[in-house]
TrEMBL record:
It comes from Paenibacillus lactis. InterPro entries: ARM-like (IPR011989), ARM-type_fold (IPR016024). This is HEAT repeat domain-containing protein. Gene3D superfamilies: Leucine-rich Repeat Variant. SUPFAM superfamilies: ARM repeat.
Amino acid sequence: MSTTLLQELQGELRRLYIAGSDLAAEDFRLKRLEPKLAQLGERAPVFKKLAEGVAALTGPSDPEARAVRLQDVSLLLNSVLSTQGATAAEAQVVTEREKDNELPELTTMHSYRQLAEVQNALSESGGGRYEIVTSAYEQGLFRDLRLFPFAMKALSDSYSEIADFAARNILPSYGRSIVPYLLSEMDIQGGREEERRLQVVRELGVDPEDARSLERLVHAAEEGADKVRSAAIACLGPHPAYEARLLEWSQDKKKAVREGAYRALAVRNSEAARERLYDAFKGKDALLAAEAIGYAPSAEMIDMLLPLFEELLRKGDAGEVDKKAKEKQWSALEPFLTAFEYARHPELERLYLDLAGNQSAYPALGRLHGGDCIRILRHAAAYLESTDTDEALDVLKRLEEQDPIYLPYAFHASKRRLTPAELYDQYVGSGWGRLKTVVSKKSQRAQKALLDTLRDELYAYQGYVRIRLPQDQIEAEWDPRWLDWLIERDDLQLVSALAAPGNSRLLPYIERTMEKANHHDAHYIFTSLDACDADEDTKYELLMKWMERKDWKRTYSMYEEESERLLRVPDHLASESADRLEALIKDVRYDSLKEKLEEIIHALRRRAASV
């Protein structure tokens, strides 16, 4: 006789006692146990009561009633366990999981307080929810099993950016084991939510041995709404058994169906699949085929398309180059850029090197609008930037001299191959960078391009938030002369990014900047202050001046960074800090802000009293 199911239920109920009964709503672990209990309930009434209790516990209810139900189910379960011999003899407890009920290896390690805000954000509407969800993802909170149903629910969120973020980031992070859940709950006549659901399935892939999921996918491909059909068909590329169907669908009258088939065929990458894509690329579906190839570029497919691309670029048609002719030329070339966007191929490298370095050999460039010509050369520059060869760098430098729009590509490539001092000398020690007063439009554009490029290099993205590089990395990879150059150009954000101890101009710059900075600059001011080698009392005084110059009649909130810094002022200055902050309260209009300041003042006074 097995008691595994009863013990598993007991473990889940114990978890809810610790985490809070509110988390029982739609709890996946409990809902997974309910049908097993109900099955046993056909033979033993006590299991039926447990199943009903679990259903009530996970269903809609107010918090007080849910807490009572948790106690009721626990009491009944304890009674069953105390007489388990007589009860379980009537039925064999089933412990094997069905394949489509497997969940990813998740935990329940986080507290209810940590999860509640995310659950509310994904259950309600209103502003600020996107930031809560993305922050929770960065913190790893979605690895908690209790947030899994909310992650699934996010696919239908009324705010599309949350739904798209869930499809792009949250759900794929669970791995392939969630694919059966995604497909079992799919409405094949649905809309955007189902497309997102299948987007995740396509990224994760369906286990070839999961016959049930593949059946559901094929059913959606055959019977679903047009966009659902397209998305479902696109998921079938890795499965050879469906190649004939994919080729058939690629000839369908409906554009959406052909689009899905092309995407699947690009992944399939068989000889027949490549031939069909090649034919589509040369016909009316050129862009559709190009997008499919661009998603999964294969060396064999690039081999087939490169000769066509080069032939078009070298072709010099006679006749007047009017607006219509330029648009026609671009329409012929654009699909190649789409198909090659993420491709790496030695022949593509050869072509881009020659194209960027010897533009006159490619007459088609002169038959394009200026913006379209730049788009082609930027594709070439982006490819060469990551090539990391002397030849590629030389071509990029020539492009940079031709037009500052190509400066970022040359800069990124140069940084990988030069020492920090050599990089500074190349971009600031000579040429446009050394000019304090830019005198021509080209030099203005060059300096702006250089500053924008530095911004991209010096701030990394953590999720959707820009963060400064670690101090040791800054000091190791960047020549200290950059900081003086940026102070001269009064770029606070970049000064903050490269701020480091030992620069005598940094503190005076911070003091001057504080007089004209707005409240959005607080982070950059304080980051610069942290990095300089001023003493703690000086930093404290600047912090207090920053607080005193704020317009408290219009200020309605305080940055968390500001409040944390106030609480960390030196002990011997805690009393003075409290007095200066207290003098500001009379001008504060908003109660929440007033309460925040009063909390800080109270904490500082307690510290002062304990010294």
